[in-house]
From TrEMBL:
GO terms for cellular component: plasma membrane; plasmodesma; side of membrane. This is PLASMODESMATA CALLOSE-BINDING PROTEIN 3 like. It comes from Actinidia chinensis var. chinensis. SMART domains: X8. It is found in: Cell membrane. Residues 1-19 form the signal peptide.
Length: 159
């Protein structure tokens, strides 16, 4: 019974995690949002996922791409005050803007886990770019890592 309660507790913590994201404001012209998008991508944001065939390309709108880019910039700057303003075209939110196929990380460290593309072969970020992974060992490794994490979390949380 304790194990079941522990698993429920860990799952609840995973589902109801909080965070802060940066998104582009509604009601701002596409021209202004495009300038913000260009600035964020040129100033260190990871804009890989908003390219065609990647998980965050659709919806293919300036505002959607802008939001992903400013969030990347904001997270990479450690959510520093003022790093989500972009001449008043962006704002912070406590509502996760992620959607199916596109995860908006809530911290700089979570960026490496959010990379997906429309291909069925997984990729990982490396210093030389993206590296294609063999799916079979990757799935096994992820399952094993998940089991280890849940066992450690349950031991820590539930004694």
């Amino acid at each position: 019974m304790n194990g079941l309660v522990c698993v429920a507790l860990v799952l609840t913590m995973a589902v109801y995690s909080s965070g802060t994201w940066c998104i582009c404001k509604e009601g701002v012209s596409d021209a202004a949002l495009q300038k913000t998008l260009d600035y964020a991508c040129g100033a260190g944001a990871d804009c890989t996922l908003i390219h065609p065939n990647w998980g965050c390309f659709n919806p293919n709108t300036v505002r959607a791409h802008c939001s992903y880019a400013v969030n990347s910039y904001f997270q990479k700057k450690g959510q520093a005050q003022g790093s989500c303003d972009f001449s008043a075209t962006a704002t912070t939110t406590a509502s996760d803007p992620s959607y199916t196929g596109c995860a908006y990380p809530a911290s700089a460290s979570s960026y490496s886990t959010s990379i997906t593309n429309s291909s069925t072969t997984p990729f990982i970020p490396t210093s030389g770019g993206l590296q294609r992974l063999d799916p079979a060992p990757t799935v096994l490794m992820l399952v094993m890592a998940g089991l280890c994490v849940s066992r450690v979390a349950c031991s820590f949380l539930c004694g």
